[in-house]
Design a protein that fits this description.
This protein is an alpha/beta fold. It has ten helices and seven strands. It has helices at about 1-10, 15-20, 25-35, 55-60, 75-80, 115-125, 145-160, 195-200, 205-210, 210-230, and strands spanning about 45-50, 65-70, 90, 105-110, 130-140, 180-195, 235-245.
């Protein structure tokens, strides 16, 4: 139940999610093409758990014939506002509303962990054409950067996870066996106003479930700490994208 409530919590903050979440570097899709064994341009792609369309947009811009699948009504509404020309259907990875063998790529950007692999793996194999590829990726803050690591430790203390150190490679552990996933990690960064950085934090599912009072108290403390670290008001966020691709 907690897992479902966290996943659906994004519907309450769809506009803030779209405005403040980071997108992905161009090198990510280069790696998807390399590991997937074919170009994205012209390919039939479904982006599952599409949210407000951050990954869908870069797939479209690469030339994919992309369809979005999103379970949340609030996120879907924001998606339609931002990407009105991209087809969108309501659904999730455990019950894909797609025909058999219709796709060259099936992508999950920040969303595979919301699925039940006992259902989502057979569904992926069902909708992919022979030679098609399942691509999963996650954007994680790079805790090897000192200020990021310190903030990550504060977040973990707040949410009772202080005993689980941050490790982006953990994304690869627990992936379904037998699919032959190939792995790649890419480091990238973006420079944003401090307010955008804090709004991005507030869009995390843990904060959406925590509630306004706890979120505001934490963000106020972070504002003070980061104002001292970044006196010009611009924060350089650094990320590690963890990518896993399996060919059918």
């Amino acid at each position: 139940m907690k897992r479902t409530s966290q996943a659906r919590s994004f519907d309450l903050a769809a506009a803030a999610y779209a405005a403040n979440r980071p997108s992905y570097p161009p090198a990510l899709l280069d790696a998807v093409e390399e590991l997937g064994g074919r170009p994205i341009g012209g390919a039939a792609v479904a982006d599952v758990g599409a949210g407000t369309g951050l990954a869908t947009a870069i797939l479209r811009d690469r030339g994919a014939r992309v369809l979005a699948v999103e379970p949340g009504a609030g996120m879907a509404s924001e998606f339609r506002r931002r990407l009105p020309g991209v087809p969108l259907v309501l659904g999730d990875g455990d019950r894909l509303p797609l025909a058999d063998a219709c796709l060259d790529f099936l992508t999950y950007a920040q969303s595979w962990h919301w699925t039940d692999p006992r259902a989502s793996v057979p569904e992926a194999l069902r909708v992919l054409r022979p030679g098609g590829a399942l691509a999963l990726w996650w954007n994680d803050s790079d805790a090897t950067v000192p200020w990021v690591g310190a903030q990550d430790a504060r977040l973990r203390r707040l949410f009772g996870a202080a005993d689980r150190p941050h490790d982006p490679r953990a994304r690869f552990r627990g992936l379904p066996t037998g699919l032959g996933f190939a792995h790649r990690q890419l480091v990238w960064s973006r420079r944003v106003p401090l307010g955008t950085h804090l709004a991005n934090l507030a869009s995390y599912s843990d904060f959406l479930v925590l509630g306004a009072a706890g979120t505001e108290a934490f963000l106020a403390e972070e504002h003070g700490l980061l104002s001292a670290a970044f006196p010009d008001g611009t924060v350089e966020e650094r990320y590690v994208v963890s990518l896993a691709v399996a060919r059918r």
